[in-house]
Write a structure and sequence with these properties.
A hairpin with a 4-residue loop joins strand 1 and strand 2 (about 15-25). Helix 4 (about 165-175) packs across helix 5 (about 180-190). The protein has helices at about 50-70, 90-105, 115-120, 165-175, 180-190, 215-230, 245-280, 295-305, 315-320, 325-335, 350-355; strands spanning about 5-10, 15-25, 30-35, 80-85, 110-115, 135-140, 145-150, 155-160, 285, 310. Residues about 355-360 have low confidence and may be disordered. The protein folds into two domains: about 5-125 and about 320-350, Nucleotidyltransferase, domain 5 (2-Layer Sandwich); about 130-315, ATPase, nucleotide binding domain (Nucleotidyltransferase, domain 5, 2-Layer Sandwich), CATH 3.30.420. It is of the alpha/beta class and about 350 residues long. The strands form two sheets. It has a five-stranded mixed sheet with strand order 3-2-1-4-5, with helices on both faces. The relative contact order is 0.18. The radius of gyration is 21 Å and the shape is globular. The protein is built from eleven helices and ten strands. Bound molecules: 5'-O-[(R)-(carboxyoxy)(hydroxy)phosphoryl]adenosine and zinc ion. Zinc ion binds near residues 115, 119, 139 and 288.
Length: about 350
């Protein structure tokens, strides 16, 4: 049985952040270290092979730092957890293999965690959050809308059919020449812009997928708009130039970002509201990197309160990929006396995980 004073080391390497955390059995996060891989900025997107090599380089120093910050050593650990999927397979394998190796060499129990369940569980590091609720995981790789009648039971209502919400932010930022990752930059520009300046389309998919999402048409609409106004004909400012050098250009970028962001938020919050009504729930949990977006938090909060409910959203460092959230998800399984065999494979696709055992990681 996992006791309140026992310590768990959690590892997350599903995409481009190398993460390690130490979690105490009572749910306290003793450390939560994230090593961001800057190498992808040059390519304005994540390069999978480079990401897995960077994980190999960064993982042990990151684990060491998480132990140091927590003030503990390897001998103090009682269990090891790692993300088993979904994610980039080469990246998953680095963290999963390291966790298994550590578990094997120290004779510790091991838990493989579903990344999506990790995102949902992140909030438990900061506050009590009871089911039932409607959850939205929106990140660079995911846009999943779920009904969670109780923790451990996850009903997938809908998902994106093409780009993930965060991917749409990243691609639009790339079109605008704003850098990577695009979400925080678009968010910043949008705060100065008019969300009604440009009427970008909203894909409601009302007839054939009321809970599904599609963002690729929106991204194309932004591209066509930029072509129409001759944006690509003008020389883009060089990366050395300060982004604020041209007020007209900044005002234009702000309006495009605000209008694009409004289109994404309308759809995300509209579908969250529909899911609440359908499942007779008024409690909404937002998570994933896109949940850092201030306007999305505000709109989702207003919506939940208009239904007499509330919004739960972790602080930004717990919304983005981190190992603390993996530790929180692992903790509930350890408390229930569940562990995984060291033969547990990494799984890249969410579909295969759902088929095996919904988010349980078994
Ligand atoms: O959860 P996360 O750290 O990693 C993935 O699992 O993908 O999410 C990263 C994504 C990126 O696409 C990033 O652009 C987006 O979250 N993001 C945001 C904001 N901050 C990060 N999107 C919109 N607004 C933000 N403030
Ligand atoms: Zn994620």
């Amino acid at each position: 049985m996992f006791r309140e004073s026992d310590l768990l080391l959690a590892i997350e390497t599903s995409c481009d952040d190398t993460c390690a955390a130490v979690v105490r059995g009572d749910g306290t996060l003793l450390s939560n270290v994230v090593a961001r891989q800057a190498i992808h900025e040059e390519y304005v997107g994540v390069v999978p092979e480079l990401a897995s090599r960077e994980h190999q380089r960064l993982l042990l120093p990151t684990v060491r730092m998480s132990l140091e910050e927590a003030g503990v050593g390897l001998d103090d650990l009682s269990a090891v957890a790692a993300t088993r999927g979904p994610g980039l397979i080469g990246c998953l394998l680095v963290g999963l293999s390291a966790a298994k190796g550590l578990a094997l060499s120290r004779g510790l129990p091991f838990v493989g965690v579903n990344h999506i369940e990790g995102h949902l569980a992140a909030i438990c590091a900061e506050q009590e959050w009871e089911a039932p609720f409607v959850g939205l995981v929106a990140s660079g790789g995911h846009t999943e809308l779920m009904y969670v009648p109780e923790w451990g039971e996850y009903q997938l209502l809908g998902a994106t059919r093409d780009d993930a919400a965060g991917e749409a932010f990243d691609k639009v930022a790339k079109l605008l020449g704003l850098g990577f990752p695009g979400g925080p930059i678009v968010d910043r520009y949008a705060q100065q812009g008019n969300p009604k300046a440009i009427a970008f389309p909203r894909a409601w998919l009302k007839k054939d997928g009321p809970f599904d999402f599609s963002f690729s048409g929106l991204k194309t609409a932004v591209k066509y708009h930029l072509e129409d106004v001759g944006f690509f004909d003008e020389a883009a400012p060089s990366s050395e130039e300060p982004a604020t050098s041209d007020p007209d250009r900044d005002a234009f970028l702000a309006d495009v970002c605000a209008s694009f962001q409004a289109a994404v938020i309308d759809v995300l919050v509209g579908k969250l509201e529909l899911a609440c009504k359908e499942t007779k729930t008024n409690r909404v949990l937002l998570c994933g990197g896109v949940a850092c977006n201030g306007a999305l938090r505000e709109a989702a909060g207003d919506m939940a309160r208009s239904l007499g409910g509330e919004l739960g959203v972790p602080s930004p460092r717990l919304c983005q990929d981190n190992a603390g959230m993996i530790g929180m998800a692992a903790l509930s399984r350890l408390r229930a006396g569940e562990t995984d065999p060291l033969s547990l494979p990494a799984v890249a696709n969410l579909d295969e995980l759902v088929l095996t055992s919904p988010f349980a990681g078994a």
